[in-house]
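User: Sorry, folds how?
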Amino acid sequence: MARNWKLGLAAVIAVAAIGGIGFSAFTSNAYIVGNVSSGSINLEWTPTGSAAVQVTNASYDLCTATVTQSTLYVNVSNLAPGDSCTLPSSDGVYLTNTGSIPASVTYSVSETNPGCFWALDTLPGGTFTVNPGATLPAGGIEVAVGLYAGVGNTCAGQSDTITFTEPGVAGV
């Protein structure tokens, strides 16, 4: 009997050595693979180039407009009280989002000499959304700048920098 017992123990040890001591471990792997990419916001003034400017009141005012992708320049000089210059919406200058995600735009206007000069535009005030591929405003932007009519000589030789700011951030 001792011999059978030793043979049985040898068989158990052989099985344990080949297949593991009384247990088998099976492993399997599962993977999740995803691609992630970020979008972009790219606010541009379009189209670029020179734009026609209408002069109101005096023919000696010097008014020009230039559009680059990042800046809309309206240059005005030699104004008399009551004079103004307008970049009309019919010129079709737009703020366009050429990026791939919506831009939340907070719009503001600032002036360095608001007592003498004024500025108007047709962009919506406050915060608005420009979707990818969209342009605002629908009919084109109109910008007008001028010298107040009742300022007399108090604004002679003065200048003003009027900044229309449209910072865009991701989101709606």
Remarks:
- The chain has one domain: 43-170.
- The CA atoms of residues 20 and 27 lie 15 Å apart.
- The chain has one helix and 14 strands.
- The first strand starts at residue 43 and ends at 46.
